């Protein structure tokens, strides 16, 4: 127990977390497209908790991680009581870790399509992304695409503890010039990959007009 506590606080794992930990990020599908357009997030919550995005969430999670790693390591739960967040955690950090916060919100996976698709549009517009890719709510048989691919839940419980299916998500993106220098053909194909099969989740094609950015976002 003592060795484990040291490893995840001041040891190799703890140092790796402190250096590389990021709760959420936006990634561009192509360097010429300007702002990032795909969101990778554990859960993603309601709009008031998201801006400025993603720096607001990541700053809170960095601060909370530091407090968790520097407090006296609590006895294991179970059998001992759940220790909760550090006493020094702020109201914003409690909201980050709450059931409706960006770390644990499960509505995108569990609510009905009628309840989430309009809200998904609202959140994506606010944070400036095309779709949201997230985990934390496993389906043990497949990757789940919802709202025409705007929401993709990639947790299939692949660890031995859960016994779900091995899976990966493949995103293939192309941006092809046309004869008109102001028009480009954009194509995005998202495929769920399993040990014994592949399933196409999204195929989107559109024309992009106007000069494109040539600097990476």
Describe what this molecule looks like in 3D.
The chain is an alpha/beta fold and 217 residues long. It has one domain: Purple Acid Phosphatase, chain A, domain 2 (4-Layer Sandwich), CATH 3.60.21. Helix content is 27%, strand content 24%. It is built from 6 helices and 8 strands. The chain has a 5-stranded mixed beta sheet. Helix 1 runs parallel beside helix 2 (12-20). The chain is globular. Residues 213-217 have low confidence and may be disordered.
Give the full name of the CATH homologous superfamily. Metallo-dependent phosphatases
Which structural class fits the helix and strand makeup?
alpha/beta
CATH architecture: 4-Layer Sandwich
Helix % is: 25-40%
Could you name the ranges where pLDDT drops below 50 across 5 or more consecutive residues? 213-217
How are the strands of the largest sheet arranged? 1-2-3-5-4
Q: What percent strand?
A: 15-25%
How many domains would you count in the coordinates?
1
CATH topology: Purple Acid Phosphatase, chain A, domain 2
Which overall shape is indicated by the principal axes computed on the Cα atoms? globular
CATH class: Alpha Beta
- In round numbers, the mean pLDDT is 85
How many E strands? Answer: 8
Distance between the first and last residues' Cα = 43 Å
Rg from alpha-carbon coordinates:
20 Å
User: What can be said about the biggest beta sheet?
Assistant: 5 strands, mixed
How many alpha or pi helices? 6
Q: Give helix and strand order, one letter per element, not per position.
A: HHEEHHHHEEEEEE
